[in-house]
Amino acid sequence: MTVRRVYILVKAYPQPSQQYEETVCCAGVTDTGEFLRLYPIPYRRLKPEQRFDRYDLVEMKAWKSESDHRPESYKVDSDSIRILQKGTKLKPEQKVRLWLPFVTDSLTALKEDNRATGRSLGIIKPDAGSVRFKSSPFDQGSEEDRSLAMGARQQASLFYDTPLKELKADYVFGYKFTSAGVTHDMKIHDWEVQATYHNYRRKYGGDALHVMAKEYGENIPTKNLHLIMGTMKGHPRQFIIIGLLRSEQDIEALRSQATLLGF
Hints:
By secondary structure, the protein is α+β, with helices and mostly antiparallel strands. The protein is built from six helices and 13 strands. It folds into two domains: 88 residues, CATH 2.40.50.140; 169 residues.
């Protein structure tokens, strides 16, 4: 077990767990330049001062998972989590430079790397003008999924006086896009997207989906949208969208600067 300092890039949507009640999988870049997957983090059970946001620099004790053969996967001692610096302290170009080294030419190239090396985390930029935002009513899941969620709540009742309020997703959101000319249709597992919908529903009521479609389908794709891709433990060859990145910065100019400087 070693102490890691990680700039958080994404928090995935919480998943029920019979052992941990509910966990969140995160991904981020260490201060030594490693792209890691961090879990299981009981985010909603963390103390208020431990609840990190995107781009926060977070210190934690972590160790390589023996049960997860994906090379980037590390388990975390949630009690050790400590925020060292808020992401608001970073300049926009500093944020981009954190993740720019992990951008791959295409999803096809990332899959090829996955087969060759086991790489299970990467970042891609969809082809210009190809992104289409999608939404559909949430499928309540299989009987197995519902049983797992119920078991997690029952387990939690043994350890906590107050159970967590159940998170309910009304809609599933996704992107259809091309990468190097190949079409992909994927769900978005970034917690931010679901949180945005709930905020919009409170603010706009019945117009929430329309506002979501405008923001995620029209505005965000024009802001250098990049997708954080990750595989699932049970399906180590299948990539899903775990996070969205965007920036007003000139990404190509920053990339050229990095090349000239040798990193």
